[in-house]
Amino acid sequence: MPTHSSWIVLSITGLYMLSLALISYGVRRHSRSATNYTTGGGHFPAFLIGFLMLSEFIGTAVSIGTAQTGFKVGISAAWNLFALALGFVLFAWLLARKYKELGDNTISGVLARNYGQRTRFATSIITIFALEIVAVSIYASGGAVLASVMQVDRTLAIVIVGVVSVLYVSIGGMRSVIYTNFVHAALKYLGVGLALWFGLKQVGGIGQLQAQLPARMFDWTAIGWGQIIAWMIAGIGSIFSTQYVIQAVNTVSHAGKAQHACFYVAILMVPFGIGAALIGMCSAVLFPNVDSLQAFPTLIASMDQLTAGLVVAGLAGSLFGTISAVSMGSATLLLRDFYEPWFNPEKSDAKSLRFVRLATIAVGLLPIALALTSDKVLMIAFLGKALRASLAVLVLMVFYAPKFGTATGAFLSIVASLVATVSWFLAGNPWGIDNAYIALFTPLIIMGISHVTRRKTPAEPLVQATS
């Protein structure tokens, strides 16, 4: 088996990272104001924004996690990507046009229009918390890849991943994220395709794969409908209320292009999910005794150096692409909802730009410590998505039922959803009920109660706040 700490793998990955740094450096002139840093400073084609959003949702955590689940249960692991594809279709139909026409590029600003400033702050906190949880899973999966293919300690690999990711994304702001994530997504697709081709070749083809695995591994619902529906709730909910998606759809020139970008993502999601699940299944045949988290990395470590270098570059690129999305979204919320109102009321652009750059670095480095002890990558990734599902309920109410519930009910929904969902996750999802269900029903119940009880007290006007 070839050694992939060799100069060929390292050189390919290094050259790829250098090219990304040059792209970021080249567009830095478009990030010399806080607004341009967080918006990209212009309008972009729909296909480019489609790849931008795709890169965030097919990050290393999802690909490694899907292969890990495919290693254990088979092809039904692909449902977590199918759920995201469905989420983007629904987002295009229900929300993309409304977000674009509203023109507000923060999720907290959208909710504050109907539910007031308390809800703005609570929304920012839960969104940042959810994004940081996603970052934990990203670092853990990225560290697993680098540790395996470069034969270094996992802790060292995670630290390297975190530091390099933060330095890369802080250079050029949103414009650099848009351009580099297009490259990330394309190379990630190529990498997964190469890994799948290699795995099937080693197994002897799809027929031999079927012959060597139990029939249940090819059952599209083997994971269970409870898990599939939970993935749908978490995936669809996260798309509806993800800060990064809202920023992305506001970078195109009109609402129609925002919808087209979402359809592009949905189309590309499906084959990627099937490919990642099949990679895990190939590893189950080739390396039945490895830890499931190592299903994808172990397959890469068996490839020739040139092909492995391309796959590793793709995985590394998707890792940095997702971290850039998480860091940019969190930093934008910290800037708009906390720093400018409280510490920069005069709106000095120099101060805001300095803060958002520092915030990008801080939120990128923070999750590293937790990533060192994380091994259930896909479960952690979907906890982050589940937390955003509770916000999606309120987003749909803002646009389609603005008079339902109260401002106080919205605020309590967010706080209760955060506490209940995380507690349920830490308790191990009792009785087999996924935490995504808790995230979905908590705001529905609280807003329903607030809507009914407000009739018994003086009417509580909904706040029409400007963002």
UniProtKB/TrEMBL annotation:
It comes from the Bacteria. One of its GO terms (molecular function) is symporter activity. Its main location: membrane. GO terms for cellular component: plasma membrane. The chain crosses the membrane at residues 6-25, 46-65, 77-96, 121-142, 154-171, 178-200, 220-240, 261-287, 307-335, 355-372, 378-400, 407-427, 433-452. It is found in: Membrane. Pfam families: SSF (PF00474). It is a multi-pass membrane protein. The keyword Cell wall biogenesis/degradation does not apply. PROSITE patterns: NA_SOLUT_SYMP_3. Keywords: Membrane, Symport, Transmembrane, Transmembrane helix, Transport. Belongs to the sodium:solute symporter (SSF) (TC 2.A.21) family. This is Sodium:solute symporter family protein.
